[in-house]
UniProtKB/TrEMBL annotation:
It comes from Frigoribacterium faeni. One of its GO terms (biological process) is translation. It comes from the Bacteria. Coiled coil: none annotated. Keywords: Ribonucleoprotein, Ribosomal protein, RNA-binding, rRNA-binding. This is Large ribosomal subunit protein bL21. The gene is rplU.
């Protein structure tokens, strides 16, 4: 089993070939190929985590499309002052499919 842990946005994702992952918005068009930075690479019993060894590993993904995340409601309230504020937020996301780990 070959998989890698890649750094994407502010998080780390475990990916294998064929995995579809939702990441923070990338500046790429649909069908483009992007390279993700590996943090860990596992190939059977071999585990690579050293920076010099990981520099030889490439994780490529194909951009499937852009989407928006679920709406998150933010409410601020201060007691005894009559201050209330309500805002919404939707994250911009990109869905990618992992094509190769070499």
């Amino acid at each position: 089993m070959v998989y890698a842990v890649v750094r994407a946005g502010g998080r780390q994702e475990k990916v294998e070939v064929g995995t579809i992952v939702t990441l923070d918005r990338l500046k790429a068009d649909v069908g483009d190929s992007v390279t993700l930075v590996p943090v860990l690479h596992v190939d059977g019993d071999t585990v690579l985590s050293a920076a010099d060894a990981l520099s030889e590993i490439t994780v490529t993904a194909e951009v499937l499309g852009d989407l928006r995340g679920p709406k998150i409601l933010i409410q601020n309230y201060k007691n005894k002052t009559g201050y209330k504020r309500r805002m919404g937020f939707r994250a911009d996301l990109t869905r990618v499919k992992i094509t190769s780990i070499k």
